[in-house]
Automatic annotation (TrEMBL):
It comes from the Eukaryota. The lineage of its organism: Eukaryota, Fungi, Dikarya, Ascomycota, Pezizomycotina. It holds the Pfam family Abhydrolase_1. InterPro entries: AB_hydrolase_1 (IPR000073), AB_hydrolase_fold (IPR029058), Peptidase_S33 (IPR002410), Serine_prot/Carboxylest_S33 (IPR051601). Keywords: Hydrolase. Residues 73-233 form the AB hydrolase-1 domain. Belongs to the peptidase S33 family. This is AB hydrolase-1 domain-containing protein.
Length: 480
């Protein structure tokens, strides 16, 4: 692998937002393949934000120079597949600015405004093998090279001791942070993680075996809180079959509401308020049936808003690959979430994953369990939307892949790590198994972890003030 070259700054523009926030929008060009710089470029988009201060006394040249070199705190978004919110809407912004940082929100390649992945772009690469080879370039190993290239550009004129930057990784962003620690520890001053201690020693089947257990717990919690929804969910499923048959009910954006797609709403169960959000949708759909005998367009659109894959296709295309830590894997994922779910005992109420006629045999009083953060082949059959349908062949190709570009993590580097690392790990995390997170924490030298059962996976958003206070207390408090 060639050394990282600075990213090319293509253009930038700054403006002041209410609250005295100076935001600069940046576009960079980076190699499409960092190992083959001559293969073309991708565009990265990011925003920096800092305080826009107007001091009474104009700063001296030395003060101005110091201000220009404020340390960077860089946010690594979850996913994979999501771009960043605008700085003024991000809870990290005020926390970081008050602590003397400037903040960078950089969209990962393929997300947000950074050459976003979409069906026309993928299909333009050629056949399925060419498409798969292209999509392999959007994993964490390429992401951290992009960030390192941008760091070299943004800190080019910084003093040597100020060039390293700090990173905050949420969920998948924590996975990326561990890759960054493995590949380019010299670029990092400190690392913060929330719900992102990746199961780096485990493969997809082990991950899904563990996470299904937590999904079952969350389904049980859902039906304890909303016992009437046992019948309501069953009623909705039976209506979908009756009104839409095998093809399902047409959705406003071109997809189809099938029973299988309906039962993926449990993706929300791992977040604060997730049970209530799903119940609100169930209430809306059953009210439609009571009042009109069918689902309204508004309710179908509300359902679509709970299924993120059509607008964030990397999430579906590469989700299982984030659990392939090695360059060469003994077994492909082969739709691991489906296989593991199909092998769960009947008492787990996931029979819908293996029996298309399960409604005929499942007792009326038996609750239908929702899946969690899992991607299934039916997401690409057109039900989740036409964009994913066009990429169905390459999705299948990736599911059969055993060769990737490189190892995502360097376990030996993590064992000798010298970069300060601070993590919040959630005991009741539906997405990142707590025991596997502990296993990873034991691997990273010097890490400080706060384990808690008071928050769920999305606490960095829903409980942001407390979470960031905890992270910085880990950094600021000394044990000895």
């Amino acid at each position: 692998m060639a050394s990282i070259q600075p990213a090319k700054l293509v253009r930038s523009a700054s403006h002041v937002l209410p609250g005295r926030l100076l935001v600069t929008e940046l576009f960079f060009a980076v190699p499409r393949n960092h190992a083959r710089p001559g293969d073309g470029t991708l565009t990265l988009f990011g925003r920096t934000v800092r305080k826009n201060e107007r001091p009474i006394v104009p700063p001296s040249p030395s003060d101005a120079a110091a201000k220009a070199q404020l340390p960077y705190l860089v946010y690594l978004e979850g996913g994979p597949g999501f771009g960043n919110r605008e700085p003024q809407n991000h809870p990290l912004t005020r926390v970081a600015l008050d602590r003397g940082y400037q903040v960078l929100y950089l969209d990962y390649r393929g997300t947000g405004l950074s050459t976003p992945i979409n069906a026309p772009l993928v299909l333009a690469q050629g056949g399925e093998e060419d498409q798969a080879r292209f999509l392999k370039l959007f994993r964490a190993n390429s992401i951290v090279r992009d960030f390192e290239a941008v760091r070299l550009t943004l800190t080019e004129h910084f003093d040597a001791d100020k060039k390293a930057w700090s990173i905050v990784g949420q969920s998948f962003g924590g996975f990326v942070a561990l890759t960054y620690l493995s590949k380019f520890p010299g670029g990092l001053r400190e690392v913060f993680m929330t719900g992102g201690l990746a199961p780096i020693l485990r493969g997809p089947d082990e991950v899904y075996t563990a996470t299904y257990k937590k999904v079952i717990e969350r389904n049980e919690a859902y039906y304890r809180k909303y016992p009437a929804d046992v019948a309501a969910v069953r009623r909705i499923a039976e209506y979908i079959v009756r009104a839409g048959g095998e093809q399902g009910i047409p959705l406003p954006s071109g997809g189809r509401l099938t029973v299988s797609l309906f039962l993926t709403l449990g993706l929300a169960f791992g977040a604060h308020g997730g049970l209530d959000d799903v119940h609100s949708l169930i209430l809306r759909l059953t009210t439609d049936l009571d009042q009109t005998g069918q689902f309204t367009r508004a309710s179908l659109a509300a359902f679509e808003s709970h299924i993120p894959f059509e607008h964030h296709p990397i999430y579906a295309l590469l989700h299982e690959s984030i659990y392939h830590a090695k360059k060469t894997v003994a077994q492909p994922s082969n739709w691991s979430a489906r296989r593991v779910g199909q092998n769960l005992p009947s008492s787990c109420y996931f029979t819908w994953l293996r029996d298309p006629d399960f409604l005929k045999s499942a007792p009326q009083e038996q609750p239908l369990f929702f899946a969690g953060e899992m991607v299934f082949p039916f997401h690409f059959d057109g039900s989740a939307g036409p964009e994913l349908k066009r990429m169905e062949p390459v999705a299948a190709r990736l599911a059969s892949e055993t060769e990737w570009e490189e190892d995502l993590y360097d376990e030996e580097q993590l064992r000798r790590n010298e970069v300060p690392v601070y993590a919040v790990s959630y005991i009741d995390d539906m997405y990142v198994d707590f025991e596997f997170a502990r296993e990873t924490a034991r691997l990273v030298k010097g890490i400080k972890v706060r384990e808690t059962n008071a928050w769920y996976h999305d606490a960095v958003r829903s409980k942001s003030e407390e979470v960031y206070a905890t992270l910085f207390s880990l950094r600021d408090d000394e044990i000895d």
